[in-house]
Design brief:
The protein has 227 residues and is α+β, with helices and mostly antiparallel strands. It folds into two domains: 70 residues; 116 residues, OB fold (Dihydrolipoamide Acetyltransferase, E2P) (Beta Barrel). It is built from four helices and six strands. Strands 1-3-4-6-5 form a five-stranded mixed β-barrel.
Amino acid sequence: MTRRMILPLIFGIGGLAVLLSLGTWQVQRMAWKQMMLAEIEARIAADPVAVPADPQRDRDNRLSVAADVEILPQEAHVLTSRKFTGPGYLVQVPAGLEDGRQVILDMGFIPEAQKNEVRPAGRYRIIGNMLWPNEVDGFTPDPNMEKNIWFARDATKLAQAFGIAMDDPYIIAVRQVDGGDYGTEPVAIGADIPNDHREYAITWFSLAFVWLGMTGYLLWRIRQKTV
């Protein structure tokens, strides 16, 4: 060890420690996210309860609910696509609950060819999950009201279009329909939360490995010059 090697060695050890700590932190975050996702998945599949009288986003998002509803003869079609099926729509409808409240239901998928078919409004028993969708950003086009084509499940605009008064608009994503066939294919929701911490951890540990190799090579070069 020469004096010229001390500063690069300190710098190398410091950088390695930082990169390893960042990788370890991402591993810890990955474990936390996996636990959170497991809790959400269990919540989605839990035995359904009645729709809360005072729905709250933080408390009730993805809550499993069941209700007897009266589907009203109005639809909004959210553009989507499915693998092996192609383009289609998620059908949003207004519906009345037994207590007089009105809600928005996502009844599921229809292929593009079925857009103009008339589906049977009326009474159904539904099971689904309350959802406050986060699908709208500054690049989302406004819905084409003339053709009834929406580009996101915008609960606020859907409530306005259906004339439903809600303090914090939500939808119920239906996963099961009893008492009849509405003519759509229910689409069960998932946790829908990315967990990229494994990739982040691999990146940081890879950088640590590269940093270690570069530090070792620099120290070897310095030693060769002093021999």
